[in-house]
Design a protein that fits this description.
The complex is a heterodimer of chains A (296) and B (339). With 296 residues, chain A is mainly α. Chain A is built from nine helices and no strands. Chain A has one domain: MetI-like (MetI-like fold, Orthogonal Bundle). In chain A, helix 1 runs antiparallel to helix 9. The longest helix of chain A has 37 residues. The N terminus and C terminus of chain A are likely disordered. Chain B has a domain of 205 residues: Orthogonal Bundle (MetI-like fold). Chain B contains 13 helices and no strands. Classes of the chains: A mainly alpha (296), B mainly alpha (339). The interface between A and B is large, with 62 and 65 residues.
Chain lengths: 296, 339
């Protein structure tokens, strides 16, 4: 289970890792295609509207008209589950993009400059990093209120420390290397040094971290939705749909609970495969991949 | 410097950092709750409440004072173990936490135990043939348990074992028809102490599903960690040396590799606690388990700011403290560690 644990990095053999990464990519692309296609299918009338359904039976079991049944408001569970993949991908992409945009430059600056600012930032980020991811995002989502940008912001704060940490450590390390010293004495400026010597390391580490974090973020977003936080009710989100399904579980209504969770499980599995596979593949290929370490 | 002095210096620096981190967390939570858009008064009373009621509540919450003075009061109270009072029922936040913490600990400890036993068993099973079927299955088990949304897994478990098979209760901690055991708040211990079998079995029946669900979900962490560390130990020179002395493979694994692979697991257990809390939050809500995470969810729904603040500070403090304790324990136990 995710929710805050940096997944223990374990090298798969290169062949196996490449296969795992390929499978992960196939799954993630499939979800992306579903996300793109669902609005079109809804417009074409092939899939029911995710929020409509006043005329439908409440808690109708799966039938020919509604393959995955209907929920407590008569909404089509299939349609909501399909529409949920777009929502999840959108929020997670927004959150992680923001986290990258904040964490990477901040890590570079902190690692390159060093000194008091660096120590302060490291302490702050380490403190944020020790907090359970879900607890932190619950507090943030509680404060920021409901909405798509709000949920993305709440998730983003959680992941900034990870990028900060990786980039900062690599920057500090690169800075101390002899060849960098040499480059500097030849008159290379900080920006040139960072671009020339750091970028390659970061380019190999960040995609792994990004896909593993995306997997984690899908779970956290679902967790927020399940706790009644995150996205407004009009947006079909797996977690909040599961929260609504929870009340019906004791009566044995399984279809409202099964499909959204299954969809979420699949996406997280795909993203984890991708991340794990990439990690093993890259470390097997280059042999010098820096792992994000706990201690600074 | 001798190792002993290095060790002491390390212990001192970690211990000194602990209050700083706690202070940072508390300040962060405090600031977040004040800086957040929206007036808590609006959230509590609605925008159309009479002005007198708003002013009274503002005063009661101390929101009429300056931010600096509020912060001063907050830290002062915190230093004295005061976390404020709940807005909904005037109960002190400390007693809210004291009431619900045993339930969470009971669930958490049992789940951690299940996770460790199950995860270590799965992780160890693949060791005979690396990259073999069993080994691969174990790895997929690790990723699979990671990818399962905890609340969904809990709902599926409820549907199968409680609703369809009817073996165990769907949720809650104790049947409403019985009198719950009194004492420490740990129902299993309390009922054992008073020797009441009906109370014990009722508590256990309610505990099984949430603890098992959480345990299975967390076991992947132990599985992965043991696999990784065992592999690393088996690749090491001392295992090579042991093998070349003609020791049996069983002896090499059990006596030479395993002890070295187990120590890092202590660190993993520490990390797991943070994860446990995230999982417990969702599991408690799904199973209506009246622990601290369930109260937090309740307080969020009621916009009960002092309770939210108190629970977050206490839980975060616990996590940080456990992390530091584990670091210290590892430093004491592992003579190879350099600082």
């Amino acid at each position: 289970m995710a929710l805050g644990v940096p997944f223990p990095l374990k090298p798969f053999g290169p062949g196996l890792a490449a296969r795992l990464a390929r499978w992960g990519l196939v799954i993630v692309v499939a979800y992306a295609l579903v996300a793109l296609a669902t609005p079109l299918l809804i417009q074409a009338g092939l899939v029911a509207d995710a929020n409509g359904g006043l005329e439908n039976p409440i808690y109708g079991p799966p039938s020919l008209a509604h393959w995955c049944g209907t929920d407590r408001l008569g909404r089509d569970v299939c349609a909501r589950t399909l529409a949920g993949s777009g929502v999840a991908l959108e929020v997670v992409a927004l959150a992680l993009g923001l986290a990258l945009l904040i964490g990477v430059p901040l890590g570079m600056v902190s690692g390159y400059l060093g000194g008091g600012l660096d120590r302060l930032l490291v302490l702050l980020m380490d403190t944020l990093y020790t907090l359970p991811v879900l607890l932190l995002s619950v507090v943030l989502a509680f404060l920021l209120g409901k909405g798509l940008p709000n949920a993305a912001a709440a998730l983003c704060v959680v992941y900034v420390p990870q990028y900060f940490r990786v980039v900062r450590n690599q920057t500090a390390q690169v800075k101390a290397d002899l060849f960098v010293e040499a480059a500097r004495s030849l008159g290379a400026g900080p920006i040139w040094i960072l671009r020339r010597y750091l970028l390659r390391n970061v380019v190999t580490t960040v995609p792994v971290l990004l896909s593993l974090n995306a997997a984690d973020a899908v779970l956290v977003l679902g967790g927020l939705g399940f706790l009644g936080l995150g996205l407004p009710e009009s947006i079909p989100e797996w977690g909040s749909d599961l929260q609504q399904a929870l009340g019906a579980v004791p009566t044995g209504i399984w279809w409202t609970a099964l499909y959204p969770g299954l969809a979420m499980f699949g996406l997280v599995l795909g993203l984890s495969f991708l991340g794990e596979g990439l990690e093993g593949w890259l470390s097997g290929a280059s042999g010098r991949l820096e792992k994000p370490s706990k201690q600074t | 410097m001798s190792r002993r002095r290095q060790l002491l210096a390390y212990l001192a620096s970690r211990l000194l950092l602990l209050p700083v981190m706690l202070w940072l967390i508390a300040s962060l939570v405090f600031l977040l709750l004040r800086v957040a858009p929206g007036d808590p008064i609006d959230a509590l009373l609605g925008t159309r409440a009479p002005e007198a009621a708003r002013t009274a509540l503002r005063q009661q919450l101390g929101l009429d004072q300056s931010l600096a003075s509020q912060y001063g009061h907050f830290l002062w109270d915190l230093l004295h173990g005061q976390l404020g009072t709940s807005l909904t029922n005037q109960e002190s936040v400390l007693s809210v936490i004291g009431r619900s913490l045993p339930a969470s600990l009971e669930l958490g400890v049992l789940a951690l135990l299940i996770a460790a036993v199950l995860g270590l068993a799965v992780g160890f099973s693949g060791i005979a043939r690396p990259e073999g079927r069993l080994d691969l299955a174990g790895r997929l088990y690790g990723i699979g348990t990671y990818a399962l949304p905890p609340f969904w897994a809990a709902m599926v478990v409820q549907l199968v074992f409680a609703v369809w098979l009817g073996w165990l209760p769907v949720g809650g901690r104790f049947p409403a028809t019985l009198v719950p055991p009194s004492g420490t708040g740990f129902y299993l211990l309390d009922s054992l102490r008073s020797g009441s079998w009906s109370q014990f079995s009722a508590s256990l029946r309610h505990l099984v599903l949430p603890a098992a669900t959480l345990g299975v979900l967390l076991s992947g962490i132990f599985d992965n960690a043991l696999r990784l560390n065992l592999r690393r130990a088996l690749d090491s020179d001392y295992v090579e040396a042991a093998r070349s002395r003609g020791l049996s493979e069983t002896r090499v694994v059990l006596r030479h590799a395993l002890p070295n692979a187990l120590l890092p697991l202590l660190t993993i257990t520490g990390i797991t606690v943070a994860s446990l809390i995230g999982g417990a939050l969702l599991i408690e809500v799904t199973f209506s388990w009246p622990g601290i995470a369930f109260r937090l969810q309740e307080a969020i729904g009621q916009r009960d700011y002092p309770v939210v603040q108190g629970i977050v500070v206490v839980v975060a403090g616990l996590v940080v403290a456990v992390g530091v304790a584990v670091d210290l324990l590892v430093a004491l136990l592992d003579p190879r560690l350099k600082f």
